[in-house]
Amino acid sequence: MPILQVRTVRTVNAVSIVAIPLIITAWMVRLSEGIIFNNFFYPIFILSAFVPLVSNIKGKFELAKVSQLLITVIFMTYVSIQNLKIGLNNHPEIVLIGYSSVIILAFDRWGQIVAFVFNFLAYFSVVVFSMTLNEQPWINLIPNGINSFAAFAIVFLITSVYKRDYIYSQAELLKKNKVLENQSQKISEQAEKLAALNEFKVQLFSIISHDMRGPLQAVNSYFQLLENEDLSKDEFEEILPFLSENVFKTSNLMENMLI
Fold this sequence. Notes:
Elements: H1 3-32, H2 41-48, H3 50-57, H4 61-85, H5 95-106, H6 109-133, H7 141-227, H8 233-258
């Protein structure tokens, strides 16, 4: 699995692991406050939060990303709107701004754009709902929209630059690893050639020590016998053809080895 995909899986898992206890805590707080409008809503989302984890375990990485996107955006939008209805202004929809960085890291190309726009529209719909509920003049939609867009744009730019630099550094690292692999392969090939040459050297010296030294020593012995007059002229002439053949074979062997 590529390193970037491993990071994406870990990011999705981390968000789900953090989200599950947060949803449970929020549910308990609402129950303690006597707010029961979402008694069925929270258990459903607690179970849904396990979907990305299970999907990643089974190797369905795209399903994990899409399911987490839908669960996070729908959950935060619903909670934000319900809080506004009962007069709570703790603005949980701000979580969507931070989650947009997860979207940039998890998705690519058109999937990234669609997911990011979907997340932004969910956040902006909460802003519009808040203005409508509080009967604010629609002229305030312009500064509210600019502020919302600026917040998402900053997250988008910073996260995109980080992701692009990370991908570039990984590509450079893969190139360097490829060069090192090629060098390692060349070194292995050279080691094999050196081993073969060393084996040939051993064989060559074996031939020199056996097939050349023996005949030359024999010729040298005959000449020493002749020099010391231990060998008569007739005996020397008798073995001369043998010596000549021996020298010829040894010379021929040396020529072959030199070639």
